[in-house]
From TrEMBL:
Record-linked PANTHER family: ESTERASE ESTD (PTHR43265:SF1)
Signal peptide: 1-23
Top-level division of the source organism's lineage: Bacteria
Species whose genome carries this gene: Promicromonospora thailandica
InterPro entries: AB_hydrolase_Est10 (IPR053145), AB_hydrolase_fold (IPR029058)
Molecular function GO labels: carboxylic ester hydrolase activity
Name of the protein this chain belongs to: Alpha/beta hydrolase family protein
C-alpha cells in the first residue's frame, strides 16, 4: 500500500506541476543593460537667473478657493501666493497622484516652498465622483484639471502665459494630455513619472517589492497571472493607458525628477523614454528620496533639501533652464529590470472565471458533507437501512476536501502577509520562506491523501456505496444516489481547488 501511495502521489504531483506550468505565463523580466549615468552628483539646475527667487524669499498667503468643474460639480482648493511677489510671476497647478487627493493634505511642502520663492501655486481637490479604483479616465481628468488652470490664470499677479503643471505619479499620465489640449500651458514638472502604462508599472513595482522581501522564486509566477488577467467584475480599462502618444506632441520644457529610493517606478526607463519622446527634458535623481521626493530624518519625512530650490530655480529661470546642461544629474539610479508588457494568462485570464471556479468549488465542498450528513441522519430512523460510503473512503475523502480548503486558505493568507511586508518594504524570513514551505507542504499532504483515495477506489473496484445491512451488493435507491453525488461533489470541488493552487505555483518543481 505504501509503494502504491507514493507512486500515485508522485504521478498526481507531476500532473499538477505540468498543469500549473502550461496554465499561464512565466515571469522573466529583462535586466537593464546599460544604466543611465548622471553627469554630476549635484542636482543644481543650469541656466538659472541670478536673483530670480529662492524658497524662503517671501511670506506665503494661503487662501481656500472653489473651482467650478461643470455646471453641477465644483471642487475646493488651496491657493498659495508670495506676499509682495512681483507681477507677471509664474503659476503652477498641482495634479494629484493615485488616491483621494484632498488639497489640505497634498503637496503642502512643495506648494508652500514654491510660493515662498515667488511662484503662485494652486492645489485643487481631486474630482472623485468620476474616479474610483475600478474606473478612471485620464483624458477626462485632464479636462477637469484644466478648470484649475483657467482659475489660476485669472489670479492677480500671475502671468496667464506662464502657467504650468506639477504632476506626481499617476498625475504624470494626466498632465501630458493637458499640455496637448492646452498649448498655452508653459511647462511641466513631472515627479516620479511612470511613463509606461499602468499595468506595466504595477507589475514592475510588484516585482521590485517581492525581490526586496526576498520571496522564493516560485512566488514570482503570480505576477503576470495576477496583474495580467482581467480583474473580477470588469473595469480597470485604464490599466493599459499609453501616455506616449501625448508625450510625442510635447513642445514645452519638462523637468522630470525621481527619488532613487523609489522602488515603485522604473526610474531610468521612464527618464529615457521622456528624453526620447519630448524635447527639452531635464532629469534629476535625488539621493535617498522616496516616491514623493521625501527623505527620512530623525524628525520624520521631509522634502529632499535640494528639491524645492531646484524646482523653483528651473521654473523661474525658464526659458534659460529648459535646455541648460547637464541634462541628467544627481544620484546614480539602479533600476534592475525593465518594465514591459505583461504576458496575458492562458487560463484564468478572466478574473470572473477564476472567482467563479473557486466559489463553485467551495459550494461543492460544503454540499458534499451536507448530503452525507443528511443520509446518515436518515439511516437512524427505524426501518430505513439506507446507504453509506464504501469502507475506507470516508477518511481520505474528508482529508482531501479539508486539505484543499486549508491549503487554499493558507495560500491566500501567505500572499496577504507577503503583500503587507512588500508594501512596508520589510523582510521576515520566517513569514516569507517559512510560510511558502508551509503552504507547499500542506498542498503535497493533500495530494498524498488524494493518492490514498485513488488506491482505496481501486481496492473497492470503483464501488462508492455500501449498504448499512448485511446485503453484499452495492445498494440502489435514492440514498445511494445521494451518497454518490456527495462523493463526486467533494472530489470535483477539491480538484478545482488543487488545479487553482497549481496555477498559482504551489505544485511547481523546485522552490
Amino acid at each position: 500500500m505504501l509503494i502504491r501511495t507514493v507512486a500515485a502521489s508522485l504521478a498526481l504531483l507531476v500532473v499538477l506541476a505540468v498543469t500549473g506550468a502550461v496554465a499561464g505565463p512565466a515571469w522573466e523580466p529583462e535586466p537593464v543593460g546599460e544604466h543611465l549615468r548622471p553627469a554630476t552628483t549635484s542636482t543644481a539646475i543650469g541656466g538659472t537667473t541670478p536673483g530670480a527667487g529662492a524658497p524662503g524669499d517671501y511670506e506665503v498667503r494661503e487662501s481656500p478657493v472653489t473651482v467650478r468643474i461643470t455646471d453641477d460639480v465644483e471642487v475646493g482648493g488651496l491657493l498659495r501666493e508670495p506676499v509682495g511677489g512681483p507681477d507677471g510671476r509664474p503659476g503652477v497647478v498641482f495634479v494629484h497622484g493615485a488616491g483621494t487627493g484632498k488639497a489640505a493634505d497634498a503637496f503642502t511642502l512643495a506648494a508652500t516652498a514654491l510660493a515662498s520663492a515667488g511662484v503662485t501655486t494652486l492645489v485643487p481637490d481631486k474630482r472623485l465622483d468620476t474616479y474610483s479604483t475600478r474606473h478612471r479616465d485620464y483624458e477626462a481628468m485632464a479636462r477637469d484639471y484644466a478648470r484649475s488652470v483657467e482659475y489660476l490664470r485669472e489670479v492677480p499677479g500671475v502671468d496667464p502665459d506662464d502657467v504650468g503643471v506639477y504632476a506626481e505619479s499617476e498625475g504624470a499620465w494626466v498632465s501630458p494630455v493637458m499640455m496637448v489640449d492646452d498649448p498655452r500651458l508653459a511647462f511641466q514638472v513631472l515627479v516620479s513619472a511612470p511613463v509606461v502604462p499602468p499595468r506595466q508599472q504595477a507589475a514592475y513595482a510588484v516585482d521590485n517589492y517581492l525581490r526586496n522581501t526576498e520571496v522564493p522564486q516560485g512566488v514570482f509566477r503570480a505576477i503576470p497571472r495576477a496583474v495580467g488577467m482581467r480583474l473580477p467584475g470588469g473595469g480597470f480599462e485604464y490599466a493599459d493607458f499609453d501616455v506616449r502618444p501625448w508625450l510625442t506632441q510635447q513642445e514645452d520644457p519638462i523637468l522630470a525628477v525621481y527619488g532613487t529610493n523609489d522602488a515603485s517606478m522604473p526610474l531610468e526607463q521612464g527618464a529615457r523614454e521622456l528624453m526620447a519622446d519630448a524635447p527639452d527634458v531635464t532629469v534629476r535623481f535625488y539621493e535617498r528620496a522616496n516616491h514623493g521626493i521625501n527623505v527620512e530624518t530623525p524628525d520624520g519625512l521631509v522634502l529632499h533639501p535640494d528639491f524645492a530650490a531646484d524646482v523653483a530655480g528651473w521654473v523661474l529661470g525658464l526659458p534659460g533652464t529648459a535646455s541648460a546642461p547637464p541634462q541628467v544629474a544627481g544620484d546614480q539610479p539602479e533600476q534592475l529590470y525593465l518594465a514591459a508588457p505583461v504576458p496575458q494568462p492562458a487560463w484564468y485570464g478572466d478574473g470572473d472565471w477564476l472567482v467563479g471556479v473557486v466559489v463553485v468549488a467551495v459550494v461543492l465542498l460544503v454540499a458534499g458533507p451536507a448530503l452525507l450528513g443528511g443520509v446518515a441522519l436518515a439511516r437512524r430512523r427505524p426501518g430505513r437501512p439506507g446507504a453509506r460510503l464504501a469502507h475506507g473512503l470516508r477518511g481520505p475523502l474528508t482529508g482531501l476536501g479539508a486539505g484543499a480548503v486549508v491549503t487554499t486558505a493558507g495560500l491566500v493568507a501567505y500572499l496577504a502577509a507577503v503583500a503587507r511586508l512588500a508594501l512596508d518594504y520589510e523582510k521576515d524570513a520566517l513569514v516569507v520562506q517559512g510560510g511558502w514551505v508551509a503552504v507547499r507542504v500542506a498542498g503535497i499532504a493533500t495530494v498524498v491523501v488524494a493518492a490514498v483515495l485513488v488506491n482505496r477506489l481501486r481496492d473497492t473496484r470503483g464501488r462508492l456505496v455500501a449498504a448499512t445491512g448485511a446485503e453484499p451488493r452495492e445498494p440502489e435507491g435514492a440514498s445511494a444516489v445521494v451518497v454518490r453525488v456527495a462523493f463526486w461533489a467533494v472530489v470535483a470541488g477539491a480538484t478545482a481547488l488543487l488545479v487553482t493552487l497549481a496555477y498559482w505555483g504551489v505544485y511547481q518543481l523546485g522552490i
